[in-house]
């Protein structure tokens, strides 16, 4: 089981308390954009082999959404940070 | 709920009805909200704050659960409304019921369904967490744990707890 650090509770807790909520840092475009841009916003997601910025929710705890960078190769959560904060820089191609 | 179940190591019993509120307020309004409700509000997530027979548990950055004797519900709601605080106080007295889980093996009993390391939850601390898929609020109070659960899930939770108790009675 993954242990995930909740940046609001400041505790490292079992994955069972959390739910995954999709890719992070997807910016909603202005409604007047082209159909192609709107399609990309709705459906096109990155699928990296390596660090991936994701939204998670501490659903069974403080109920807050936050962001996490998870390495999709090792399934290790490298860092978590509060919603609205910029994506932190991750050293190296894959997390250590 | 039937007679409380007791074994050598654990006791599980349903607690009498009490007033409960879900309080949402910003950090800036927390002190005023606590004053209006005559209950202290913990500064850190997971903190239980007690004043007489009223107490609160901080669940998140802007969320507390407040419990009090049943007859205090209306005066507390009135005092909060009169205070003019830009927050939300929702009475959830009937939504939830509580079980007291106590005894030397209370942690082992709750470990049957809760993924948290309860040895790290000291008395005076609590949390909303999960018990076998149910969202519950755990309070570590002076004489053991209290578990709040939505009323419709209470028979299921009680069955799980008493099944775990029987298991402990065999193994402890």
Automatic annotation (TrEMBL), chain A:
An annotated GO BP: tetrahydrofolate metabolic process
Gene3D superfamilies: Folate-binding superfamily
Gene Ontology molecular function terms on file: sarcosine oxidase activity
Pfam families associated with the record: SoxD (PF04267)
Superkingdom to which the source organism belongs: Bacteria
Segments passing through the bilayer: none
InterPro entries recorded: SoxD, SoxD_sf
Name assigned to this protein: Sarcosine oxidase subunit delta
Originating organism: Acuticoccus sediminis
UniProtKB/TrEMBL annotation, chain B:
InterPro entries, alphabetized: TrmE/GcvT-like
UniProt-listed SUPFAM superfamilies: Folate-binding domain
Full protein name: Sarcosine oxidase subunit gamma
Organism: Acuticoccus sediminis
């Amino acid at each position: 089981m993954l242990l995930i650090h909740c940046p609001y509770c400041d505790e490292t807790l079992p994955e069972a308390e959390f739910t995954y909520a999709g890719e992070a840092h997807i910016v909603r475009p202005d409604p007047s954009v082209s159909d192609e841009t709107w399609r990309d916003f709705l459906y096109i997601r990155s699928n990296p082999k390596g660090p991936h910025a994701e939204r998670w929710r501490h659903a069974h705890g403080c109920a807050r959404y936050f962001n996490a960078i998870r390495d999709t190769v090792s399934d290790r959560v490298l860092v978590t940070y509060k919603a609205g904060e910029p994506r932190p820089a991750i050293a190296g191609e894959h997390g250590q | 709920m039937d007679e409380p179940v007791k074994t050598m190591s654990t006791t599980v019993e349903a607690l009498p009805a009490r007033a409960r509120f879900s309080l949402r307020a910003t950090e800036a309004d927390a002190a005023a909200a606590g004053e209006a409700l005559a209950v202290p509000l913990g500064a850190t997530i997971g903190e239980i704050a007690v004043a007489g027979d009223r107490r609160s548990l901080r669940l998140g950055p802007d969320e507390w659960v407040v419990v009090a004797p049943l007859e205090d519900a209306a005066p507390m709601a009135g005092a909060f409304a009169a205070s003019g605080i830009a927050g939300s106080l929702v009475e959830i007295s009937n939504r939830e019921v509580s079980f007291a889980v106590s005894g030397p093996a209370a942690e082992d009993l709750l470990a049957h369904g809760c993924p948290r390391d309860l040895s790290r939850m000291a008395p005076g601390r609590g949390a909303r967490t999960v018990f076998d898929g149910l969202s519950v609020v755990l309070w570590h109070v002076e004489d053991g744990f209290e578990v709040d659960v939505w009323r419709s899930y209470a028979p299921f939770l009680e069955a799980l707890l008493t099944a775990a108790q029987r298991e402990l009675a065999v193994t402890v």
